Amino acid sequence: MRLSRRMTQKLAFGLIWTSGAVAVLVLVFLIGYVVVRGAPEISFEFLTTPPRGGLGGEGGISSCIVSTLWIIVTTMVLLTPLGLGAAIYMAEYAPDNRLIAFVRYSVELLAGVPSIVFALFGYAVFVLALTLHFSILSGALTLVCLLLPYLTRTAEEAMRSVPRAQREAALALGATKWQVVTRVVVPAAMPGIITGIILCVGRTVSESAPLFVTMGGSSQMPDGLLSPGRTLAVHVFYLAMETNALEKALATGAVLVVLILVTNLLTNWISTRLQARMMGAT
Amino acid sequence: MALANPPSILFVSVVGGPSMSRYFIDRWSSRVVLAFGITSFVVLVFIAGFIIRESMPALQEVGIFRILFGTEWYPRYDKYGILTMVVGSVLVTIVSLGIAVPLSLGAAVLLAEVAPENVRRIVRPAIELLVGIPSVVFGLVGMVWLAPLIADLGGKGSGSSVLAASIVLAVMVLPTITSISEDSIRALPRTYKEGALALGATHWQTIWRVLVPSAKRGIMAGAILGTGRAIGETMAMVMVIGNSPIFPSGLLSPARTLTGNIAVEIAAAVGTHQSVLYVTGLVLFVLVMIINSASVLAYKRKVD
Amino acid sequence: MDPKITVRDVDFFYGTVQALKKVSIDLREHQITALIGPSGCGKSTFLRSLNRMNDTIYGAKLVGDVLLDGRNVYGDGVDVVELRQRVGMVFQQPNPFPKTIYENVVFGPRVLGEADSGKLDHIAETSLKAAGLWDEVKDDLRKSGLALSGGQQQRLCIARALAVEPEVILMDEPCSALDPLSTLKIEELMQELKKDYTIVIVTHNMQQAARASEWTGFFLMGELIEYGVTGEIFSRPEDKRTEDYITGRFG
Fold first, then answer.
1. Cβ-proximal residues to B91 (8 Å cutoff; 6+ apart), any chain
2. How far apart are CA B102 and CA B97, in angstroms?
3. CA distance A225 to chain C (A)
4. Domain map of chain A by residue range?
5. Is residue A278 a contact partner of residue C98, using CB atoms and an 8 Å limit?
6. Nearest CA to B164 among B81, B111, B239, B226?
7. pLDDT tens digits, one per residue of B7-66
8. Where are the domains of chain B?
C-alpha cells in the first residue's frame, strides 16, 4: 500500500520537527538540570571559600574562580597578539602560492588535534622541558597553542570580508600598506575579531583536559603565574570523580553554564552594537 | 592648507621627518607579521616532534605492534596493549554518530527548509549555544542523570557504559554536524529547489531527492568533522564510560577510550608507561589527521 | 607649457592578455580630460595606471613611459606611496570608510603624519567646502560616512581625496552610481576644481564628456583611437570609429 505523497511529506516533516525539538530540549534540559539541582548549593560561602577536599567535597570554589580568571587573562594576553598577527599575515601579506596553501592546511590540521594531545604536548614542553612545573603559565601556554588556529582563522575571515574597495581607497590616498592594514582593514573587521576573542575566552573557561594535565589540580588559592591551580571546569571533574559531593559538582557546573551564557550574550551584543555603529546608526 | 609633509619634488624618499618612520614601519612590519603567520605551522611541527620524541622509548622497548594490537592493558606487569581502547573509542564514535547524524540532518533540514523564521531564530542559537557548554558539564549530567537511568533500565552497576558515552557524545557533536549541514543546504542555488517544485514535486520530495543529495559533500564534511571531535573527546568520556580497559561486550558494558586512557593514567605514569601514553597520543594524532584530511579533500572536491 | 602628465607608447598586460596598445596622450594642467569608449576598452585600466593602482593586481605589467612633470612614475626608486598622494583617485562606487565623516576626510593627512588637531579641523573644513559638502554636514561631522546618501558619499570621497592636496585627480566614472541631481552637482564641482587641479575623468556618458571637458580621448579595444579638443572630437571626428561611437552606432 503506497502512502500518498502528502502523507509521506507529513510523516517526514514530523520526524524533522522532532529532531529539531530534540536538539532544543536537550539544551534546555541540560541547562535546566544543572541550574536547578546545582543552585541550592550556591551560597555566598560557596563562592568565597576554597575547596577543603575530603570525600564529602567540603568547601567552596573561590580558588577555582580565581584560577579561572588568572587563566583567562594570561591566555588572552598571549593569544591575542599572536592570533591577530598571524591573521594579518594570512589575510593581507601572504602570497598565493603552494607554500602558503601548505601553511593554511597546517592551521586546519592544528585545529583538529584533540585537546588531550595538546595536554600531552603541554606536559612535555611547558611543565617538564621548560621546567615551569604544574602552573597557571603552563596551562595558559598550552591553551594558547590550542586556540591559536581558531583565533587566526576567525580574525582572518573577518579581515577578508572587508571589501577590496576600502583598501583601494586608502592606497589611493597615499597610505602605506601597513597603514591600510592597521587603520582601515583591522578597524573595519573589529566586530568579527572581537567576537572571535570573546569566543576564545568562552573556550578557555570550558576547556578541561589540557588544564587537568598541566595545571596540577591544587585547590589552593594561586598567588602567581607559577602557582598550580584548578579551574572551575577541572574542579567539576575532580568533584565528580573523587568525591560524592555531586550537588557541589552540579553547583560548580551551574556557575560555569551561567558564565558561558553570559559570554555568548556578550558576543552577540557587542558584535551587533559595533556593526551598527560602523554602519552609521549611532 | 599646509600639511606636515609637503609633497616632495623628488620621488625618492626624502630623509628625515615623520615621513621616514612610516616607511620604516611598513618595511619592518611585513617581516614581523611573517613570523607571526607561520606560528601555527611551527606549533604543529613542535607538537608532532615532541609527541614522537616522547613516544620513542615505548616504541623501541615495546614496539608499535604489541602496543596497537595487544589486548591486555596491565602497565604494572608490562602489558601495554591498547587494542581494547581502540575498540572502545571506535565503538563509541560509531554509535554516537549513528545517533547524531540522523538527528543533525533532520535539524539541519528543519532550519534550512522547513521552519518559519521565528522558529529558526530560537532553534539555531540554541544549537549554537550547545557548542559552548563545557564537556565536563555534559559528562556530569551523563554521570548523575543518564547513567543511573540506564542502570535502572538494565545496565550493570552504575550504568557507566558505551551507551551512556555514545549518547553524551552524540549530543556534543550534534551542533557541529547540524550547522555545517544547514549551511551546505542553504548554499545550494535556488534554481535546484525551484526546478524541482516547478515539475510538481512536493516540498519533501524536493528536499529528499534533490537538495540533500546535492549537499551531500558538505554534509559529509560536517559528519567527518563531528567524527574527529568525537574521537578527540576526553573528560566527558572518562566520566560516563566506566574506564575499564576491556573489550566491551555490548552497549551496556563499560569500556575505555584512547583519550580517557591518557587522562586517567598520565598523572601517575613514569618511564615506559608514560611513553606508551605518548604513543597513544600519537595514534590519536595520526587518526585525527587522517580523518581531517579526508574532510578537507571531500570539501575541495565539492567545490569542483 | 608642458603637459602635467605625458604618456608615451604604453602597452599594458594582465598576465598574457594585452589591455592597452601603444597608448600615447598628454594630460594638461588645470584642464579636464575626458576618456570615453565602450565597456572593456581599457579606459579604466589606463586611468589606474596613472597612479599605479594596477600594481595591486597580480600579473599586471606596464611597458612604456608615464611621465608626471617629466619624471617617469614607473622608474627605479619611485615612491609609489607618494605618487598616490600626488595623484588622487575617486572611484566608481563611493567607498567611504566605516568611520565618521570627519575621520574619513582627515584619514589622508593623518597617515601622512599630520597630528595637530587644529590643523586637521581646518583641513576637514576646507576640503568639505571644496567638495561642496560642508553646508550639508557641518552640524554633525561625527556622523558615520555610511549614513550619507550616494551623492553625498561620493562628494565625501572627493573631499577625502582633496584633503591630501593632490595635483591630479583621477575620476573613474564617478557619477555612474548616482542620480541625475547628484551627477549635476559633481559636474559643477569639477568645473570649480579644475582651477586648482588637473582632472582626468573616465565616463560612459558622452553628454557629460561633451559638456564638462576641454579635451577628450576615445578608447577602443585597448587603443587610443583619437584625442583632441572636446569640441573638435564631437563635431568633426577624424576617425570613422570615433564618429560611429559618438553617433551611437555601437557601444
1. B162, B248, B255
2. 8
3. 40
4. 45-279
5. yes
6. B239
7. 433 333 333 344 568 888 888 888 889 888 888 889 989 998 999 999 999 888 888 888
8. 64-303
Summarised one tens digit per residue, pLDDT across range B265-301 is 988 888 889 999 999 999 998 888 888 777 667 666 6
**CATH assignment at residue C39:** 3.40.50.300
Q: Which member of C51, C98, C164 has the closest CB to residue A188?
A: C98
- Which residues on B lie below 8 Å from C83 (Cβ)? 11
Give the relative orientation of helices A232-242 and A246-279 as an angle to the nearest 10 degrees.
160
Q: Are C77 and B4 inside 8 Å of each other by CB?
A: no
How far is the C-alpha of C14 from the C-alpha of B265, rounded, in Å?
Answer: 61
Residue C251 in any domain: the answer is no
Q: Tens digits of per-residue pLDDT, A59-116? A: 888 889 999 999 999 999 999 999 999 999 999 998 888 888 888 888 888 888 999 9
Contact B11 C79 (CB under 8 A): yes
Find chain C residues with C-beta within 8 A of B17's C-beta.
113
Contact at CB, B135 and A206, closer than 8 angstroms: yes
CATH tag for B64-303 (out of 1.10.1660.10, 3.90.45.10, 3.90.330.10, 1.10.3720.10)? 1.10.3720.10
* Residue that has been written with the C-alpha cell 591498547 in this structure: B82
| Domain interval for residue C21 | 5-246
Please give, rounded to a whole number of angstroms, the shortest distance from the CA of A172 to a CA of chain C.
5
Claim: this prediction has a pTM higher than 0.95: no
A105-156 pLDDT per residue, tens = 888 888 889 999 999 999 999 988 888 889 999 999 999 999 999 999 999 9
CA-based nearest distance A51→chain B, Å = 18
CATH topology of domain A45-279: MetI-like fold (1.10.3720)
Q: C61: which strand partners?
A: C13
